[in-house]
């Protein structure tokens, strides 16, 4: 055994020598800023910037090939720090998060059969396109979960991925990992999302999933700002145009459209609190707020869409939530729209 | 009615062999040798074996529980590890040594690496070597208190005697053993290593069941002979004869049951041959010139560590690799 | 040119006894047919009929869209009910032409481009190839590669060996077996048409030795018709894979990443040869084929003559229906077939079998860790190391997976068949192929 120990020790020693020599021999001079920038980056090598990792991005930034705000997950703080190192102005970027465009949980969406095989979506997509009846839906095998460097997306027990909005940095790893392109990045401020990815016709969808987009076009019609377009039987919201009013969610017959603010409520400004800063009027996407500077402001209920942006900007918490608003065209459709929990 | 069907990738039929079938078959193939060991060394041998097997299974289950994995002792791999370990111990091994050995084999040899399939070294051998270094006295206590070999005053194994003689000729002599006794297994030694006949029988079963291939054992034996035959011819008064080398110590057990462990041996034939030859050479070197009488365990462990390298350099030649253009013989 | 056995391979039980001795019976006409526009490798055909159109059997309903594509013909007469996405054996819905069958089964006259050719052995090869395309013929062994493309190698490549594949190494299937017993003359004549295209006068037919009756019959016929050598081949899966077959018959090894034409060889299935013969001499397009419906999950296994586009549910009904413990329905054989999820799926030109397995024969245990037994390595007929590729791709190491020849895999599934750990190696390798190709594209190589 002594020999064995010696031999093994000797091998280890030689290897260490070799490595040491190599690191001296192949050492390259680098711009000291590369290290500084790399330090300022989160260091999780998520690849959101499109490069192989944080060091690669640091090199790119120092070389001028990337902007200081290229790191999406890092957000504002990181880009500020980097801008300081580089002596540049930081540009403010809006925060995005991943959104899953599928709502086909167990019980709502059918499966083709019992899938047995590699528990990975990309591999499962090779067997009959998808274990799910719908070939466009979330297979729930967790490829995105494993790809996420921030542990921000998980397979719930319902069979589809769930994004943790707090933890999500919008790096887009999951978007790239999903073989069905069900995920995309949407502004964090958006509350209304289409939750379907299938271009199939209404009849086909209904046979496969009770909460899919059937392409009826009601959302398109009701949208006050023409933010919704129907593409191959699937509604798509243009994030640039959307004012977050949530009307579409209320008319969707399969309850496919999610509205994080539902049920929408009336909004009222408390007169005693209002200081007349005009911030709310400026942020209102539908000009429903009126009032002179330094005077009490008022919300016109018939114009208000209940997006609550004023609530968020008010510095003195003067905007209060009121009663639930009635649904547009609710008379006939209530029962159908209420089927989904 | 629409039946719910299974959907899978091809193929849809299988040859029906499974990991657990393989493990249990190997265990069964070891059984004759084990029984022979009980016959030779009596109840203590049986106790040692039972302890090793039971505690290997227990440690495996506990480790899997702790790691939050499914407990898979029914797949037989822990039992086999325990059995192999026992086969490598002297019948006189105290109970605590067996428990220690089982723990070392299963925990240090296997579970720390991630369980079955991920261990680079043969778990039973890891345990044996650790024990040999830590408890040299207990591990080489060949006293036989019961069984047919009881009182057959054999304080040392043939290999041990030979080594003593080699180290200090004035204190010993080259052992004289009847070859037939060796072949049948009428000799002291570890519980499961004595009977060449029964080990070969078990190996034959494994070969027929296509669980082992012959490249490793044959390479092992051939390489050992390639060193020991010339050595014996040059100095017959100093070295053991090749026959003795073959049939003493753990060679048969090691070559057919330990070196052939699937997890820790190379993937394809070429690699396995290299592996076997390596084992044989190292064993011969240790036996003839090293400090220990026996080298089988060390050699297999050393070669285990080279398996990834061997696999890398014995990549199979793919079909159509040599571009033959016209009617050539590939 | 010695007979050689390839390295690797496996010996699954051949399970052919269920249907090997059953004569082919006509499956008859279902009420509706669904003709997917994509029944072959290459560009999907373009539909040229619309809802309401009356069609006759043999009428073109979708035309070839490009060189690597073939037309689709109505397989009986009736009315087009829709041209819409429909269930497809590959899982994703595909455009299909739905025909309501009228039961008359009238066929179009074989005239114009399909007019019978009187002396096919001395005819302009290009016209014959055009005819093969017009008849919509594809490789009927299951690969469904357009036949006219295979018969049109670049002019600088000299073809000197034609092999007909009568190996049928997939367990359970007996469609080619029956075809060889029923129509030996047509097979040999079909082969001769192919030989004539290349100006050759002798070719081979390879048949596995587990089919002694077709071997004897074909040898008999070969003796009287000439120009053909029947080669009995060792029984080992995948003897019928192109490269392994060529290796066995001519001792040539098709280089990695190359096609059989690289060694001057063209391989065609025996059923394809019959289709060629019918198209050339009778002007019949490819609208039917033999399909073995078998396995313990179907009540009366049979060899059926089926129309292209027949829903598999109908075929199963013709065989007494499924047993109660049915657990898997597979289109094709057990080694390379595709498991199906609905009986609505239509059969295609490549449907050589339908295998129905009861629950007791479906393996459901989850995969275990690889125990490095090396059986996958020794069983791989392509000389690959499946477990190594599996390990690399499982660790997302695509570059190494590529280095270990992922793309050489022929997906024969021998490796998964033997793996004691139940690892779906082929699925991993198919997945790895996708990743390797994507990586190569990214690197621009
Ligand atoms: S499926 Fe591929 S890797 Fe597996 S045995 Fe066949 S050729 Fe080899
Ligand atoms: S056959 Fe299975 S267990 Fe054996 S080496 Fe290959 S992958 Fe591993």
Overview in brief:
Chain A is of the alpha+beta class. Chain A has helices at 2-25, 32-40, 54-63, 75-86, 121-124, 143-147, 173-177, 202-208, 218-222, 247-251, 279-283, 309-313, 330-337; strands at 96-100, 114-116, 153-155, 161-163, 183-187, 192-193, 228-231, 234-237, 258-259, 265-269, 289-290, 298-299, 319-324. Chain A has 13 helices and 13 strands.
What coarse outline of chain C follows from CA principal-axis ratios?
globular
Largest interface: B-C, 51 and 76 residues
List the ions, cofactors and other small molecules found in this model.
iron/sulfur cluster
Say what the CATH topology of the domain at 265-340 in chain A is.
Answer: Alpha-Beta Plaits
Q: What is the residue-mean pLDDT of chain A, rounded to a whole number? A: 82
Decide which structural class fits the backbone of chain A: alpha+beta
Distance between the termini of chain A: 68 Å
In round numbers, the mean pLDDT of chain C is 93
- Full CATH superfamily name of the domain at 112-282 in chain C: NADH-ubiquinone oxidoreductase 51kDa subunit
Instruction: Give the overall silhouette of chain A.
Output: flat
Fold-level CATH name of the domain at 112-282 in chain C? Rossmann fold
Helix coverage percent of residues of chain C?
Answer: 25-40%
The CATH class label of the domain at 112-282 in chain C is Alpha Beta
Count of beta strands of chain C: 17
Terminal-residue CA separation of chain C: 36 Å
């Amino acid at each position: 055994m002594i020999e064995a120990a010696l031999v093994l020790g000797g091998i280890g020693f030689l290897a260490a020598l070799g490595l040491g020599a190599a690191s001296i021999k192949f050492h390259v001079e680098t711009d000291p800023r590369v290290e500084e920038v790399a330090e300022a980056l989160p260091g999780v090598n998520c690849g959101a910037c499109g490069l192989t990792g944080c060091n690669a991005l640091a090199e790119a930034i120092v070389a001028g090939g990337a902007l200081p705000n290229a790191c999406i997950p890092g957000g504002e703080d990181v880009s500020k720090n980097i801008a300081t190192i580089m002596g540049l102005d930081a540009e403010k970027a809006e925060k995005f998060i991943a959104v899953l465009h599928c709502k086909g949980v167990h019980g709502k969406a059918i499966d083709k059969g019992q899938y047995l095989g590699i528990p990975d979506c990309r591999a499962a997509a090779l067997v009959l396109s998808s274990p799910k009846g719908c070939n466009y839906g979330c297979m729930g095998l967790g490829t995105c979960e494993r790809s996420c460097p921030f542990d921000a997306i998980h397979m719930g027990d319902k069979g589809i991925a769930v994004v943790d909005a707090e933890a999500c940095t919008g790096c887009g790893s999951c978007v790239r990992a999903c073989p069905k392109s069900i995920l995309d990045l949407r502004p964090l401020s958006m509350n209304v999302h289409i939750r379907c990815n299938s271009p199939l016709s209404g009849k086909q969808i209904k046979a496969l999933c009770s909460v899919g987009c059937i392409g009826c076009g009601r959302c398109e019609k009701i949208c006050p700002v023409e933010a919704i377009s129907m593409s191959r039987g699937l509604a798509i919201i243009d994030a640039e145009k959307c004012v977050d009013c949530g009307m579409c969610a209320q008319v969707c017959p399969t309850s496919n459209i999610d509205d994080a603010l539902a049920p929408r409520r009336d909004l009222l400004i408390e007169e005693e609190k209002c200081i007349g800063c005009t911030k709310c009027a400026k942020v209102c996407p539908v000009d429903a707020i009126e009032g002179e500077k330094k005077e009490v402001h008022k919300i016109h209920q018939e114009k208000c869409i209940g997006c609550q942006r004023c609530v968020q900007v008010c510095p003195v918490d003067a905007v209060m939530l009121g009663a639930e608003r009635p649904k547009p065209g609710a008379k006939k459709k209530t029962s159908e729209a209420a089927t989904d929990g | 009615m629409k039946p719910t069907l299974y959907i899978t990738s091809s193929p849809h039929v299988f040859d029906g062999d499974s990991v657990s079938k393989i493990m249990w078959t190997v265990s069964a193939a070891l059984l004759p040798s084990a029984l022979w060991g009980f016959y030779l060394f009596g109840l203590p041998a049986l106790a040692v074996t039972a302890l090793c097997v039971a505690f290997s299974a227990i440690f495996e289950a506990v480790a899997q529980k702790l790691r939050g994995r499914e407990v898979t002792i029914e797949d037989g791999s822990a039992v086999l590890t325990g059995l192999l370990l026992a086969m490598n111990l002297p019948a006189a091994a105290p109970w605590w040594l067996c428990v220690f050995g089982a723990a070392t084999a299963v925990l240090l040899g296997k579970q720390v690496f991630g369980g079955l399939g991920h261990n680079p070294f043969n778990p039973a051998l890891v345990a044996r070597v650790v024990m040999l270094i830590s408890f040299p006295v207990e591990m080489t206590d060949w006293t036989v208190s019961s069984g047919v070999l009881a009182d057959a005053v054999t304080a040392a194994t043939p290999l041990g005697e030979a080594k003593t003689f080699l180290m200090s000729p004035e204190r010993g002599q080259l052992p004289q053993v009847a070859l037939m006794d060796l072949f049948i297994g009428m000799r002291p030694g570890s519980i499961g290593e004595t009977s060449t006949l029964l080990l070969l029988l078990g190996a034959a079963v494994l070969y027929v069941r296509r669980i082992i291939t012959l490249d490793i054992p044959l390479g092992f034996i051939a390489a050992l002979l390639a060193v020991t035959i010339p050595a014996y011819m040059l100095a017959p008064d100093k070295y053991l004869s090749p026959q003795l080398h073959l049939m003493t110590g753990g060679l048969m057990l090691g070559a057919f049951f330990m070196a052939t462990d699937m997890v820790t041996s190379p993937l394809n034939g070429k690699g396995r041959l290299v592996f076997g030859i390596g084992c044989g050479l190292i064993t011969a070197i240790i036996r003839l010139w090293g400090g220990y009488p026996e080298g089988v365990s060390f050699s297999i462990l050393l070669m285990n560590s080279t398996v990834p390298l061997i696999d890398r350099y014995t990549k199979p030649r793919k079909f159509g690799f040599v571009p033959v253009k016209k009617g050539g013989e590939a | 040119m010695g007979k050689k056995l390839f390295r690797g391979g496996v010996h699954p039980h051949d399970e052919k006894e269920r249907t090997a001795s059953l004569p082919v019976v006509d499956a008859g006409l279902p009420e509706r047919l669904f003709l997917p526009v994509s029944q072959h490798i290459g560009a999907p055909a373009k539909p040229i009929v619309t809802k309401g159109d009356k069609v006759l059997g043999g009428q073109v309903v979708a035309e070839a869209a490009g060189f690597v594509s073939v037309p689709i013909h109505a397989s009986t007469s009736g009315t087009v009910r829709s041209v819409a996405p429909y269930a497809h054996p590959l899982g994703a819905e595909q455009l299909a032409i739905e025909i309501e069958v009228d039961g008359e089964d009238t066929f179009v006259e074989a005239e114009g481009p399909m007019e019978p050719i009187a002396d096919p052995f001395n005819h302009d090869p290009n016209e014959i190839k055009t005819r093969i395309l017009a008849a919509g013929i594809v490789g009927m062994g299951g690969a469904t590669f357009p036949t006219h493309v295979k018969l049109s190698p670049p002019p600088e490549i000299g073809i000197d060996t034609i092999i007909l594949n009568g190996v049928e190494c997939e367990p359970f299937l007996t469609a080619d077996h029956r075809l060889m017993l029923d129509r030996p003359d047509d097979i040999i004549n079909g082969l001769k048409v192919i030989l004539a295209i290349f100006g050759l006068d002798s070719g081979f037919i390879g048949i596995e030795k587990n089919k002694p009756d077709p071997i004897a019959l074909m040898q008999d016929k070969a003796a009287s018709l000439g120009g053909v050598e029947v080669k009995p081949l060792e029984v080992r899966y995948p003897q019928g894979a192109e490269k392994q077959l060529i290796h066995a018959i001519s001792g040539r090894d098709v280089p990695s990443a190359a096609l059989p034409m690289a060694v001057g060889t063209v391989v065609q299935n025996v059923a394809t040869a019959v289709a060629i013969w019918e198209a050339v001499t009778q002007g019949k397009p490819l609208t039917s084929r033999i399909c073995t419906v078998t396995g313990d999950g179907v009540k009366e296994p049979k060899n059926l003559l089926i129309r292209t586009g027949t829903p598999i549910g109908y075929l199963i009904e013709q065989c007494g229906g499924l047993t109660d413990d049915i657990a898997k329905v597979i289109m094709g054989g057990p080694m390379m077939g595709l498991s199906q999820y609905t009986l609505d799926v239509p059969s295609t030109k490549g449907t050589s079998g339908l295998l129905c397995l009861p629950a007791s024969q479906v393996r459901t245990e989850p995969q275990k860790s690889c125990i490095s037994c090396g059986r996958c390595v020794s069983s791989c007929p392509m000389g690959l190391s499946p477990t190594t590729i599996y390990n690399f791709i499982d660790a997302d190491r695509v570059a190494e997976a590529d280095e270990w020849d992922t793309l050489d895999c022929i997906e024969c599934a021998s490796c998964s068949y033997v793996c004691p750990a139940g690892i779906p190696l082929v699925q991993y390798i198919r997945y790895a192929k996708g990743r390797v190709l994507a990586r190569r594209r990214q690197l621009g190589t």
